[in-house]
Amino acid sequence: MTNIEDIKNALWAGANTFRDSIDAANYKDYVLSMLFVKYLSDTYRESVDELKKEYSGIRLERQIENLPFCLKEEHTFEYLNENKYANDIGTKISEALTGIESSNPILAGIFRGIDFNSEANLGKKEQKNPMLRNLIEDFQNLDLRPSMIETNGEQVPSDVIGDAYEYMIGEFATMAGKKAGSFFTPQEVSEIMAQIVNPQAGDRVYDPTCGSGSLLIRAARKGGFNNVQIYGQEVSSSAISMARMNMFIHDIKDAKIAWGDTLANPQHLDSDGNLMKFECIVANMPFSKDKWAAGFNPGGEVFKGNEKNRKKVEFKMEPSLDKFHRFDYGIPPSSKGDWAFLLHMIASMSGNGRVAAVAPHGVLFRGSSEGKIRTEVIQKNLIDAVIGLPENIFYGTSIPACIIVFRKGKRNSNILFIDASKEYQKEKSKNKILPTNIDKIVQKYKMYLNNEDVEEPKYSHLATIEEIKENDFNLNIPRYIDTFEEEKLRDIEDINLDIYETNNKISRLEKELADYLKELGI
What we know:
Layout: H1 4-18, H2 24-52, H3 57-65, H4 77-82, H5 89-103, H6 119-122, H7 125-140, H8 157-176, H9 187-197, E1 204-207, H10 214-223, E2 229-234, H11 237-249, E3 256-259, E4 278-284, E5 302-304, E6 311-313, H12 338-347, E7 349-360, H13 362-365, H14 368-379, E8 383-388, E9 401-407, E10 415-419, E11 425-427, E12 430-432, H15 435-449, E13 460-463, H16 465-470, H17 492-519
């Protein structure tokens, strides 16, 4: 039987095949794609073997055609393994990916932008072929037939493979540094957001910046994959591939994951061409995205005046350029797109919609146009809660962030503030939110929804609209929760000991310096 550790070990072997040769932000595409091809091949092979037990001839062919997907022999992992020493192995893998897409509409475009024959990423054949051969060998002994996957409790095989896939996305995020934040949200943060939006049967669940799809999957799982409709959009072709593979491995075959700029070209529209409305929205948007409105100016240069006196001017975003009226509350600054994404989410909420979005703290207190937008949103009674998170928990940045919760149809005008910035445990190079920390945050939010007392010194406070007005609609958490921590008093003997040890260290260093200078004749 194949367990989750076997799958993780194969993925790590694949990662080590590329380590030190190409950037982790790039080789994740090759490792995860090869796992996906192995998964498709083993799943298809077992499905065909099962059909052969009952059918033959034309009836067998018809049954095979009715499978969720079909693979030709030259598109299988087994074929690639048999040809791993071929001089054109990179071409054969790329042709297999193209063949899988063209033979299966459900998988069309799933390997978008992933080229196993790329010299730019993998080098010339002398470097590329051994790496690709090793990558195939890393997966050749991994049996991913559903009947051979070891499950626990209520798990199904797709849960095990999907969990391993998401685990590795997280590991790649750790290795990819600053580039990682664009495609992965820490699972602990995803869990908080999923519980806050609380999807129900029949809900539409949406992530406008879905990255690898992990946050979207975790939120949808709360409502049951078969009970909710899943929508996502992402601008990165690499992330789109990860998200679609992630969905398919989790046995989510009907997720609607679109490619494109969510702000300038939102893809999920209703039959009238308006923004589709969603009950649950979760997002870990790009922080303070510069030039976020560039997509509204596809022509590039902007001129004013008549033909004789035409003058080139700098492009300026205006509400009228957005036919969906998302920026009627105001236009965010061109260098910081945080509120642009938040306004898109607000405009995408259904009548009882809920949003949980990760954002930098600046959206809570920055002034100028952002201050005007925030004031409008508060006065429309759309903000439900502000949750401060610990620093150094996200990939690609160490700055602390917050979760902003928006809700339509609020029964009061209060806003819940939670300061969970101290709720973590330090692990290796990252801080980690523990299950007890998650439970505390979510429980406090549920108490607020149930009109229970949520006041807890230095942790949570329910602010009235009057308080918020008194603070000029500034939502900076320390204005509502006392976060000051008095420094612990130290014994005078400890302080004297520190001074003594410091003076001794200075003396030793001064003596060493004098000896070095003497040797140099200075």
